[in-house]
Recover the amino acids of this structure.
């Protein structure tokens, strides 16, 4: 008769620390917040060293609908920006520690298999004073790890799902520093930098708070738009399942928040990623005094063996010379923009609209490299389109791109709105 | 009795259009030039559609020696900068066409299996006013496609050999435009941009020329430091064997030049690559009216299936905030520098010197991505160290980096020279 | 006022054609079958060109439990073998057509995040008369796309989820051919080949059938163990999300079935994969007369850009020489076994048990190549262990594997049962 | 005045241990041998831990010429088979040790940029009694790491150069064992196994030997065709630059030999690789008592980050059922052959000849996997054609492969000879 080894039964049920409803407005839901502040109470405690799940709204807090009409985009409220889940307390973590956050998984909700991209004047890094950007919305359907859009035909790709925002709470001092440095820039640039400064409008914390604390957080809380040294909206397209993120701790318990789930995003993300509501599975470890140990000044991450790789890429370079032919002193943003504009023109030559091309540069698994930084005065960036994601041949041929190719792109138009050359109300950034 | 198919014998002997001697100074050799100018006479004609070879000096024109002494670096003449082979006439190519240049191979000379890296104050993109950069030289030995250095221990990697410079000659008009835009920037920045403007000092053309033309080219010729819309010193680390480059033609016959061969270079190349003399095998095709067909404004390239891939990478991010805590308006260069400084500090924690770390960031097959560009006011860049190239474990562990790890790095010192906090004479860039 | 493009709302809700309960025995559930037969009625119709989901039981039909006791394995009933979902009718498909089946996704059930591996005497391809294989069970927990096992310590890896079985129904003629050829082999080998021939024991069809048809199917239906020209249990570890499978159609409507979902499996799968209940998302297209067009004799597939790649591998070769030193005439199975045994011995040298090593060879994302086939009389196979999946260094070093390394492996024992050197009842294969 | 660090000058000149002339017959050259025997005197001593070069003839010893006529193939002498360089003494290595051999580089001779493939009846693993294989020769030109053939149009690929043969000398006892086991098989199969047994015809050792020893070696020396436990003709296509090989030592000093350089070879190599004369750069380390430490029974290797990867592959499976429909008991060779035949038929459907397709399967960087080994009675193998190496679209489409596609292949015919259904004299294997 067999003699079996007897061990106690164990289980790997993964707890879900926060649940959300992606069909309801973010401002009606508990455990959601839209600002960074050290005094936002934690909603749950992380089981250190063990996996847990967090459900997340899309960044807009469910303002965008799966239809073929861009009206919701015209009226999108950006004052709230990222609707984050949490914060979560990491017991035992102290200022100066580093959290090692294993990104075990990021998926859409099973019954919510779609996301969206947005273009709009004033949104993103490719504003072009000569060419108006329409307000558009494109809906991307998810089929497993593949996505395609009825609004951007002839392209399909494997995603690299990730959380655009993952960050620890700033200390009071760090928060003040953020506000000061961004306010200073706003002043110095007469508002052209487009920094989003603290304001109660759009502030939201789903937790029960006494009025005084709520008012304080709404007044002081840092906006979530930029990535900062704590992580936040750092939008690392490679931080997909199987990767790890390293973030510093500023207050006891860390107060980790996560949100802004993306199905896919390019390196560089010039407008939006494929924004989606999603479910994030994480495991958090603590590296004591990691800030010093790792010489950490801003987030670190480790890549994943599961990242989809599109190896054959057609790449466009950009230099730091502006469109009027003026040389800048190594402007990296301009180099990026130039590479992107060249890729967009190239895609337009196949029949895509400017906005469809812009979306592709932002949503697809596109590789963007810093090419050269030491050859003054030019900073060089390249952007690589994976050739395999198109169902037609995008490669240059000795005969160039024929007229025949221009007829390639057909399909329903991209839902769009022209707003008379003016920035739509919902957008808080101006040229 | 067997009946054999009879066809004429063919041959694939690959002609070498230019030969050079990597042991002799560039200025003593024919077929070498150090400026961009449309009137530099072509030295050979490209067999369109067929492979050919070009031998190239290292960028310095053989000024650097394989020894353990950095004196040659202290006295390095940068006025000549890149010693290029060519130019080559591409018969049939006309302004507006695009050259498709297949990079069939880039190798060192068989009996010259080494290259070098340089650091120096004023050179590269990581000047740091708080920390003096020593003048250093490191010698890298090549063992097939592997390289390692007796001056930077505990690391070895596969190279991705490429030509740092490959470009077509500018038209007279384009040349004038380059000079004007760079002069304007020099004026606007009171010289801080560090542009290298035309000057006879360091100019060289190895061809026979009448005095008047020589004087004209030396006076007008554009310096080779920056990459520009024609290609030139665009330093694309991914443009290794198996890749293709697309460059515009500005004058009849194109006048293609190539040089600045590298054994390996990071994305971003903050100081020098592993500079070497090398042999480049190319095949050139013409895309008629390609500039219009491909919407080309600056070079394009296509990646290679032969690029070595180090998939597991530890990545460091950088934001566009300066070291005093001031927020810039999306400075890409600053973001890159911040990511690089963080990686350097991390490497120093294992025992490398600052200069060894700096060299690694520039010489190794490091991936550098533009991460996010739309999250004002921060531009985010990341730099990824391949974990496999070190012979010790560089990954963060829950116990951090122990003191034990700090003893990892041992070996001969990096040849270096301290120049009393002053820029060495040979360097033409100032802070 | 903005003018919006108005298009009708669309939806991508993905229909689930079959639902199953992974906590209940397969034989109690509708829409499950355990034999191949053309007369098994279809349970649903595939929406050609559109995605759909199919829920699948693990191959055993829920016989295995998540605990630390191998008793369920000792009593495992293999007569039923694969519990398949379907069959599904593909409208419009005719004999001679080929189905292009896009494997859009394969995932575990959200609340069933575990799978198991099995070893047992008589199971798998690594029987070794000199060394008894214990009956063991290991439980693998899934954390996103990562898996690890409390029973096989010091290893974790990204999965490549796939359906081990996907196949079309045979025609009556093909079914008869299968039975004949396998019966002939059973006779020729006096039962040593271990073919599973048709038998009512273990046969199951969940659909309502009249008694006569049920009896016929149970009597005639082909066993599901071997992969065959229709696909079936072809166990392609690379057929993960983003891949495509091409299968021939033998009867009108194709009658496609799917099941045997795996979280991960090596190339070669010498014992079981990480067996799990799972949800498969597919999209099916028809290639008319594809059998002729594609010259198809057995299944084809196309790889996926989403396959996790572990690039650094330590590989073991195997030759077709048996352990007594006898040369076989290019036995591929023997070459595979020899490579596997060598890898197993190597893993044992770090402290793993023989069964743990055996499981790793079968469950992990291991690359196995046919190396050389033309060098008579040796057929050479290699098996590559990805170095990154271990949390210790498995590479050979100049000092070899030290005794210190042998202490690496610690952790709870593998649940196992010794069955007195006899094959456990549940297993239908004998040595 | 600067103070420089002074260190002694060092050099990395890589010694070449053996030079050969690829334009002269192997049998006229020193340092070449065509048999395995422990008493062949070493021709040079390996500098342990330091790189060295070895020049190698092609396997045939320069019998094949770069022309368009297959007559040399008809008369190819296979009795000599592999013309190996060496052997080399590895000082300090003792029986039971393992050599770690770093494959630093494998390249063609600079002025000998071509290789060849051969098909012939009786050669390779795809003999097909229904279809005669013509004697053919195809010449492949090398352009850097790219190759293409004037005889096999519409395809070009990056190579993975390697040495097909690398092995240590057998001990006397091992040599006797090899001969016995292969002779036994020849007897058991009545010669059908096609083993090449020792014979003086074709034996050659370029070293000075006294007559008695020469006669002994020629009489006893093992033939080089099969890979064996010492390595030898193990033909690992992945063992390209950057990889490492691990081989056991059987006699003091190891007596390492290398040869049979290939520009590229598929996994499985059913006929010849792209055979070339080449230069191999190696570095050898000794793992004392490595055979025991590494549990080594046959060679091990480690993959290279420089291996070209073609990620998108169309794969063909093969089962162990013969063409008459008879089921074998997991014949791996048959499974491989079936997958190969299906791929060949597929390629023929685009217009390639049978021999051109056969060559592609053997010469191109094709991935071949052992898919499944435990699903009795079928062993499953797959062969994956990289889609990117063709200049037309090889993927199945919903409309199948149109007649239009069949017109794709054009170009000069493959040099070939029909030998009246008879095996050409030069081939020593019979059906």
């Amino acid at each position: 008769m067999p003699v079996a080894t007897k061990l106690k039964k164990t289980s790997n049920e993964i707890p879900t620390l926060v649940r959300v409803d992606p069909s309801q407005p973010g401002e009606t839901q508990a455990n959601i917040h839209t600002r960074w502040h050290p005094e936002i109470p934690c909603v749950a405690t992380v089981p250190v060293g063990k996996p847990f799940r967090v459900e997340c709204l899309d960044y807009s807090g469910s303002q965008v609908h799966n239809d073929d009409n861009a009206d919701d985009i015209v009226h999108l409220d950006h004052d709230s920006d990222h609707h984050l889940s949490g914060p979560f307390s990491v017991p035992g973590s102290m200022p100066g520690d580093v959290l090692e956050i294993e990104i075990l998984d990021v998926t859409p909700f099973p019954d919510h298999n779609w996301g969206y991209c947005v273009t709009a004047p004033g949104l993103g890094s490719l504003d072009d004073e000569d060419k108006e950007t329409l307000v558009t919305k494109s809906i991307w359907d998810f089929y497993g790890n593949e996505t395609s859009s009825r609004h951007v035909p002839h392209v399909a790709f494997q995603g690299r799902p990730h959380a655009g925002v993952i960050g620890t709470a700033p200390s009071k001092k760090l928060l003040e520093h953020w506000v000061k440095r961004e306010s200073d820039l706003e002043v110095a640039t007469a508002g052209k930098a487009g920094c989003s400064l603290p304001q109660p409008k759009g502030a939201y914390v789903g937790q029960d708070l006494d009025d005084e604390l709520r008012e304080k957080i709404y007044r002081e809380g840092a906006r979530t738009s930029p990535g900062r040294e704590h992580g936040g909206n750092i939008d690392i397209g490679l931080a997909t399942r199987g990767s790890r993120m390293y973030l510093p701790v500023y207050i006891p318990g860390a107060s980790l928040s996560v949100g802004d789930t993306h199905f896919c995003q390019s390196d560089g993300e010039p407008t939006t990623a494929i924004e989606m509501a999603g479910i994030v599975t994480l495991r958090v470890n603590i590296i004591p005094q990691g800030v010093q140990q790792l010489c950490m000044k801003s987030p670190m991450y480790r890549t994943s063996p599961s990242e989809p790789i599109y190896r054959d890429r057609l790449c466009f370079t950009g230099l730091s010379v502006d469109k009027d032919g003026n040389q800048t002193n190594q402007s990296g943003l301009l180099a990026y923009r130039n590479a992107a504009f060249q890729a967009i023109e190239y895609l337009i030559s196949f029949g895509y609209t400017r906005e469809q091309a812009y979306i592709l540069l932002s949503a697809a698994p596109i590789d963007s490299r810093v090419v050269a930084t030491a050859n003054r005065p030019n900073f060089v960036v390249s952007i690589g389109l994976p050739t395999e994601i198109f169902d037609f041949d995008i490669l240059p041929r000795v005969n160039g791109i024929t007229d025949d190719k221009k007829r390639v792109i057909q399909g329903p138009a991209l839902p769009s709105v022209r707003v008379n050359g003016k920035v739509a109300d919902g957008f808080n950034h101006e040229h």
About this structure: Chain B touches chain D through 60 residues (CB under 8 Å). The first helix of chain B runs from residue 71 to 74. Residues 2 and 44 of chain B are 46 Å apart (CA to CA). The two ends of chain B are 81 Å apart (CA to CA).
